Amino acid sequence: MEDSAQPEDKSRQALEVTLQEERSISRARDAILMANIKELNDVYDALREKLKELRRKDERIRSFEAELVRANKLSALGELAGSIAHEIKNPLISIQGFAKRIGQTGNREKVERYAKFIEKEADRLSQVLAKLLAFSRMEEPKADQISMNDIVDDTVLFMEHHLTRFRGVEIVVEKDPDLRPVSADRTHIQQTVVNLVMNAAQAMPDGGKIRITTGRDGTHAFISITDTGMGIKEEDLNRIFEPFFTTKDKGEGTGLGLSLCKKLIEANRGKIEVESKVGEGTTFKIMIPLDRT
Ligand SMILES: Nc1ncnc2c1ncn2[C@@H]1O[C@H](COP(=O)(O)OP(=O)(O)OP(=O)(O)O)[C@@H](O)[C@H]1O
Ligand SMILES: [Mg+2]
Question: What average pLDDT is seen over the chain?
């Protein structure tokens, strides 16, 4: 009898031991799980705190940025006023000087020469003023349905006569015949193309080629103007759109052309890009958004 009861007891004992072990393993598991959950909760709390802190920092950065933009605008305005004063002061001083000399000399030939100088300086003044007026008077752009291809044709027609002044400058036009019209102000785009073609011609004193291309670039229609001229130095590339930045001789350029172009294109929801290599040439690209249809 003893023999038959013993194995049963043994197996029960073994079962109980196993059960005990299982229980303690499960308790340990629970404890670990609880510890993990607590740890996760702590991490979650810490993350939430960090997020709040980040949001606070983000807000501070935003208000700081807004302040910076305002300060920048003010300083740009100050700089502009400074440059305008400078641009106007110099010709005025020479005009004054020559007028005084005219009053002092009895020599007819000298009088004529001084008068010529005065005329040249006055011309320069009125050029600067005309461009400044174009800036300040810029009206709200009209939303004409215009074809970039027509703009190129009109501009080339209008400039051909003017460009005969530049010896050896050839214009090549490549239009995309499938280009859809855009809504923009015809005069603004035309004025920009004229300025860019003038710059291109002026960059090629020994002649060269101006290639005008139209096409579609994703969501935009573009006109690009490429020359085979002197190119733009890398350190000048981010200054060329600043008002009064010019590398041309006194009397040759006011440095207002490109800043006006940028303002005109941006007023028409577009953008203007430049790529250049010294000694090889430059490409300016005007992009105007295509209507979504
Ligand atoms: N196609 C180009 N090739 C080389 N340099 C260029 C070209 N276009 C512009 N630049 C550079 O950018 C400068 C600024 O051009 P921007 O048209 O604003 O003024 P400008 O041509 O000097 O004077 P303005 O346009 O009033 O006659 C130029 O003086 C020149 O140095
Ligand atoms: Mg120019």
Answer: 87
Ligand 2 center from residue 195 Cα (angstroms): 6
Select the more confidently predicted residue: 11 or 130.
11
CATH for the 1-137 domain, from 1.10.287.130, 3.30.1330.60, 3.30.530.20, 2.60.40.10: 1.10.287.130
What is the rounded distance in angstroms from the CA atom of residue 225 to the CA atom of residue 204? Answer: 13
Ligand 1 site-directed mutation target among 258, 263, 280, 286, most atoms within 8 Å of CB: 258
Instruction: Check if 258 has its Cβ closer than 6 Å to any atom of ligand 1.
Output: yes
d(CA 225, CA 243): 21
Residues 51-86 have pLDDT tens digits of 999 999 888 888 877 777 766 666 666 666 777 777
pTM of the complete model: 0.67
Q: Is the pLDDT confidence value at 165 over 70?
A: yes
* Architecture of the 144-289 domain: 2-Layer Sandwich (3.30)
Give the residue ranges of DSSP H helices in the chain: 2-104, 108-136, 148-163, 186-202, 234-237, 257-267
